[in-house]
Write a structure and sequence with these properties.
Oligomer: single chain
Radius of gyration: 27 Å
Strand order of the largest sheet: 1-3-2
Number of helices: 1
Structural class: mainly alpha
Largest sheet: 3 strands, mixed
Length: 108
């Protein structure tokens, strides 16, 4: 017990604890900030992609196969008011309906 009784050892242990707590708190904050940033990016990408598809449909240039950007692994499906899939991206042709959401009459 005599080795831990010196002032130098107690100050060193206190400093290590303070730095450790600070690093842990900073790591937790960084983890949450990174997660929020990634979620925002995915939501923004999905929102912009859905607007592009909606604009294509509104322009009347609509086919049963939807083009996706090269390297894009997202599955895209367009569903009518009855819940039937009317258009899909090439990587989702053999996939059944992926959502139970029902379109509304809202004009966005």
């Amino acid at each position: 017990m005599g080795r831990f009784a010196t002032v130098r050892v107690r100050i060193t242990l206190a400093a290590v604890m303070v730095v450790g707590i600070g690093l842990a708190a900073g790591g937790i904050w960084l983890l949450h900030a990174q997660r929020d940033n990634l979620v925002d990016g995915v939501e923004t990408t999905a929102r912009l992609r859905s607007r592009d598809i909606a604009a294509t449909i509104a322009d009347g240039v609509f086919s049963s196969s939807l083009a996706v950007p090269p390297g894009d692994e997202n599955i895209v499906q367009v569903v009518d008011q009855n819940g039937a899939v009317v258009a899909t991206s090439a990587n989702a042709r053999r996939v059944s309906r992926i959502s139970t959401l029902v379109p509304t009459d809202d004009n966005y």
